[in-house]
Structure formats: C-alpha cells, structure tokens
Amino acid sequence: MYILLIMNKQRFYLLLAFLPLFMVFFSSCSNKKENKFNETTGDKEQKVKQSSGSGSLVNYDLADSNPLKFELSSQLTEISGITFTPDNRLFAHGDEYADIFELDPATGSIIKKFTLGSLLAVKGDFEDLAYAGDKFFLLESNGKLYEFNEGNNGEYISYKTHKTFLTSKYDVEGLCYDNETNSLLLACKESGSKELGKDKAVYSFSLDNLELEEIPRFIIPFKDIKNNTAEGKFNPSGIARNPKSGTFYIIAARGNTIVEISKTGEILDQADLPQNVHRQAEGIAFKNDGTLFISNESSGKTPIIIVYSQK
After folding, report:
1. Where are the domains of the chain?
2. Record: fold of 51-308
3. 163 exposure class (CB count in 10 Å sphere: 0-12, 13-18, 19+)
4. Which of 114, 123, 172, 244 allows an S-S link to 290, with CB 3.0 to 4.6 Å?
5. What is the model's pTM?
6. Is the pLDDT of residue 271 over 60?
C-alpha cells in the first residue's frame, strides 16, 4: 500500500512536469482549427458581403416624392421592359403582345410602333427588352429569347428565337446587356429550384455562342436583402447596367426596392422605391449619361416612367 502510494505520487509529479508541454500542444491544435474555420467562414462572408453605400446608388435621389414623371399612352398600360440604344433612343414593350414602341425620352410620347410576327403579333408573357450590338432581344418569362432588327412604324418583322434551360418556374423577368462580357443577363423572379430557397439567380447568355451558362453569374442571398422586403420575398422584376459605374441595378416590384450589385456579385447598396411614386416598377434602363429610367405598369391608373438624374 505504501509502495503504491509512492508510485502514484511519482506519476503525479511526472504529469505535473509535462503538463505545460501538453497545454502548448493542445493550444496549437486548437488555434489551427480556429484559423481554418475563420478562413472558411471568411471566404463565405466575402461572397455575400454587403457594404451599404459603397456603390453609385447614392447618386440618385430615390426618396424624392416628386421626381420627373412621364404619363404614357394607354397602349402601354402593361408596360414591362424598357431599354436604350447607344444613341439614347428609348424603347419599350407591353406584356402580352410583341409590340415594340419607340418613346420620346423627354416626354414619353410614342414615336413609332413595330411588331414581331406576320400580320398578327406574336403573343406571349413578355417581360423585358435589351439592345445588344445592332439587335434587339425580347425576353419571355419561360426563358425564351426573341432576336430581331428594328422595324419601321407599323411594320411586322421577322425574328429568331433562342431557347434556354430556364422554364416558367423560374419566371424570368429581367434582361440587360453587359458589353464587357458580350452577354445578356437574365434575372429570375423565382428561385426555380429547392437548392436556392429564397435566394435569386442571374444567368448569363453568351452572344458569342448563343448559349446560356449553367452556373449563375450572380446569386443574390435573400438574407442580405434589407428588411427582406414585403411578404418575406425578394422577386426581381428588372435589371440594367449603369454605364457610368459598370454595376448592375435590380428592381423588385414586390417590396418596392432597388439593389445595386457589383461586377462580381457583391451587394453594394439598396434603397426603397416609394410606393406613392412607384405603383409597380417593372422596367429599368439608363441613358449614356447615367440618367435612370424606371417604368411602372398602370395598376388601374395611368402607366408612367419615372426619371432620376444623378446628383
């Protein structure tokens, strides 16, 4: 018994002697694990980083309760998309028929109208319009793209179609041209897959090979949208590239919000679109000088375009 006690004491003192070494070893392992965890989460945070106010959105007085406004013809009651050509001519389209209108950017009055089809207008659920190179592209909610040339007033014109893997479950509503990548960007109103949840994707359609890339150009995390908008949803209805900053502006009619995205998909800023000004914001486009145009469906009243100049 006495001998065992002595042996236990010796082991105890031996453990005490080596205890600092064990503490250093375990501390080192813990730090390595912690550093690895921080590096991993740091990468994830970088992908969804939101730095409010760091973009160009602050250059527009979106809180103005009385901005410049153009009332539109009843032919554009369901105005959906708008776009500018490089020479600053403004074009728009309706929702159900492939009628293309040229509008006076100073008044909103109709200059001319031409139509896709032969004798009768093509019918569909059309959502947005873009001009790329010397062609127009019209987007349908099922992801189909219509390519065509500009027509004369009253003319019915031919067109080509490009199908994508997107379907109506994505409810594709936004379209714009990115000249840096020579591609069209398609913004989806719905997620289209369980994997995305409430997050929304923007896909890239290459004009070099006329194919839609499978991996989204951007994924907009719902958790990074301020206030998570109305009814707990963020549903993009339009997208446009700011020619001055090179960033992308995405509007959502539901929730009346506008979000600025960097070229790499970082959320730079977000602002509200006042409900008393924007009844249903569906289309967005920029003039060459950066002036911002947002089209609004009538919602039982008169369709309008709201204009914001840079501060």
Report:
1. 51-308
2. Neuraminidase (2.120.10)
3. exposed
4. 244
5. 0.82
6. yes
